[in-house]
Design goal:
Elements lengths: L2 E6 L2 E6 L4 H7 L19 E5 L6 E5 L9 E5 L19 H7 L11 H5 L6 H10 L2 H7 L8 H5 L6 H16 L4 H11 L11 H8 L4 H9 L10
Parallel strand pairs: 1-5
Antiparallel strand pairs: 1-2, 3-4, 3-5
Helix pairs in contact: 4-5, 4-7, 5-7
The chain binds FE2/S2 (inorganic) cluster (FES).
The site of FE2/S2 (inorganic) cluster has 13 residues, from loops.
């Protein structure tokens, strides 16, 4: 097996080449309780700071998606306490004034682009913050759509903006006030409230849900594949 040398939080380990940072940490004996979630690049729980061999530059990545290289040094970021005020969407409007009321620090954005440079998803983070600042909620929601909330942007922001929370707010405002309503959702919510029969199984929603918790993986997969598909939805 080809081995490479890596430095996990400054300590040297030999690990098999081709492992992700997350697997390399586990190979080295770390038991991951935090900094590890879906393992598939979706939850944003594994933001990692990386320095490649001989490079003056710090880079970032998701530990579950980034493959180790010989001489690589890395450390996962700790939980990064975000500014996250409470708000009630029902009492809000999709405007720049509203964003600034909740997150006044957005006004301090220097347009330095540090947040975009650090994003492991290559999102235009600064652009969605600027769109929010202009009150272009639809654009901000669109640009931040693929954000995983990994928190790396907030670690680099010189004016203390928590960009991913701004992204969450604009997406919520967009969904509630701007996106066209889909009456299928209202219809389905009503059916669930009334415990109506599911489209695939008999017995009413609650009974169906209970029944499904007993299914094995294959039966769940078959059921999923047999679902009524959305227009344009692939298998
Ligand atoms: S563990 Fe979920 S994104 Fe890496």
């Amino acid at each position: 097996m080809d081995m490479v040398t890596v430095y996990i939080m400054g300590r040297e380990y030999q690990v098999p080449a081709g492992l992700t940072i997350m697997k390399a940490m586990e190979y080295a004996g770390y038991r991951l309780i935090r900094g590890c979630g879906c393992r598939g690049g979706f939850c944003g729980g594994c933001g990692t700071i990386i320095r490649k061999k001989g490079s003056y530059k710090l880079t970032v990545g998701l530990a579950c998606q980034t493959v180790v290289e010989d001489g690589m040094q890395f450390a996962q970021i700790p939980y990064y306490p975000p500014h996250h005020p409470d708000y009630m969407l029902e009492n809000m409007e999709p405007t720049a004034e509203q964003i600034l009321k909740i997150y006044p620090e957005v006004f301090r954005c220097l347009s330095c682009n540090s947040c975009s440079k650090v994003c492991p998803q290559d999102l235009r983070v600064m652009d969605y913050v600027q769109a929010a600042l202009r009150g272009d909620i639809a654009k901000a929601a669109d640009l931040s759509f693929d954000c995983l909330n990994c928190g790396l942007c907030a670690t680099r922001c010189p004016v203390e903006i928590v960009q991913y929370n701004v992204g969450n707010l604009v997406k919520r405002l967009y969904s509630r006030y701007i996106a066209p309503a889909d009456d299928r959702l209202d219809k389905r919510c009503k059916e669930i409230e009334e415990n109506k029969v599911s489209t695939t199984l008999d017995g009413g929603f609650n009974a169906t849900l209970n029944e499904m918790t007993q299914f094995d993986k294959k039966k769940l997969k078959d059921l999923y594949n047999a679902r009524v598909k959305e227009p344009g939805e692939s298998a």
